[in-house]
Write a structure and sequence with these properties.
Structural class: mainly alpha
Mean pLDDT: 81
Number of strands: 0
Shape: flat
Distance between the termini: 31 Å
Number of helices: 8
Length: about 190
Amino acid sequence: PIYGVTWTRLREPSVDLPGLLARVSRLRSEYVGEFKIADLAEVQEAIEDNLTAGPERAFMANALEYLRRGDLRVAIVESIICLEILIGQLLPELITASSIPADALTKEITLFARVKILLPLLLPTEMSGVDLGAVLRTIALRNKSVHQYGHLPDGIPEKVVRQGISAVVGLAHSLAHRRDSLKREPDLQRLS
């Protein structure tokens, strides 16, 4: 009961929220956004706890928007920047908590090596569901398109590029969740 009134559901809520919003608002579906009904509990918790979004979120949102609009080169760059921010925040904390000396993480260890070697060693659970090959191919594509060609190399199927960007964004989301849970641990321990 809400406000003492019992409501009867007339139908199940739409699983296709972007489609519903597009129909109701008369917007084309590509302008509706990436919100998924499954994320609603996480959004509600963030609002209730007055959480601020991490700095990587703007790059993640940009990557998704460029991906939707078909500018794959910029989507790759934005997604990799997002990943770099999260790895820069998370790896020092994980290394400090492990038996690895803190000075072992130097700038000579590239993003490719950090993702390929360090993340699976330090975060085996989080990395088990990641398409590591797709993430590494996307890092290599970013390096080639930014430092070598100025554009995406020819001959790479669009589907492969899109899967790579999605894999990077998925990894970034997982790393952001882990970072945020590490930040909350002291508060949770203090409360218990």
